Amino acid sequence: MSTDDIALPLIDLSGYLNPTSSKDHERVIAEVREACSQYGFFQVKGHGVPLDLQKGLLRSLTNVFNLPKEEKLQLSFLENPCRRGYEASGMSIRDGDAMADSKEAFYIGREDPVVEHPGFYGPNVWPNLPEQDFRGPVWEYYQKTDQLGKIIFEILLQGLGFPSSLMEAFSKRPLVQMKMIRYPPASATLAGQFGVGAHTDFGGVTVLLQQPGREGLEVWHEGKEEWLPVPALEDVYVINCGDMIQKWSGGQYKSAKHRVINKDEHERLSCATFWHGDAYASNPLNPSDPNRETVGQLLVKRFARQFSLSKSFTDQIQVS
């Protein structure tokens, strides 16, 4: 069997969100459990995020990325204690990568009035654009995908035999980060450069919107040891598990490597919402686990490899 014969499962979440019987609910949980056990990735329809809102989000991305470079750099996420704001092309590189990513990105998170807990919570950075051209649709979209990420996490817990009420243990003030991305066309990318190099996501659930018809995402298929292209379909989200979920589930759910290569002569837009849980919450699936690493500690350990974090930052979150 070649990768041409393999496709990520496409799951209809409406059976969970609006079940007509208990069997609908159970079917979705079973399908998600199987997909995450086999691939670590799946696609969803019937997810409850309005199509008009998705289109408005993509228009907003175009608006912010088309701002003058100097204006975008004034919003640099590297100057922000919460890592909110703009990331220029070439700012992100992982250990082992030959070159930095070609993508540019813009980050937002929970909208909290003051910076707390070494930057995990705090206010967002917003570009100087009319409300209807960016902040309004972006924030509405963030709230809807925040809700969807939580629902997926709830389904994953039930797939492991835990009640959905367990969410209360780590969802009072969850870390939910959203990364809006633009990839340059192939002609503007250096030979051998990726839009995003191969990596796994660090944490919980990722909810990914791809610009319809703009391919580029590839997922590593362990069985075939090949990269599996993921289609960019309208009104279909791509969902995946991060390293934290793989660890917390004892490996029952996979965190799969993935990358982005834009091979076409057009820009490509996408948006990922990452739903992790409270910064100071530890594994709710095994409260007696002597390794009580929190969501925040795992986050700092992961990103310390990519960014220079001050000692005061790591001391506050108690990372050695």
Automatic annotation (TrEMBL):
Entries under InterPro entries matching the protein: DIOX_N, IPNS-like_FE2OG_OXY, IPNS-like_sf, Iron_ascorbate_oxido_reductase, Oxoglu/Fe-dep_dioxygenase_dom
Keywords recorded for this protein, A-Z: Iron, Metal-binding, Oxidoreductase
Domain (Fe2OG dioxygenase) ranges: 174-278
Pfam family, one: 2OG-FeII_Oxy
Superkingdom, natural source: Eukaryota
Keyword Lyase: no
Family: Belongs to the iron/ascorbate-dependent oxidoreductase family.
Protein name according to UniProt: Fe2OG dioxygenase domain-containing protein
Higher taxonomy: Eukaryota, Fungi, Dikarya, Ascomycota, Pezizomycotina
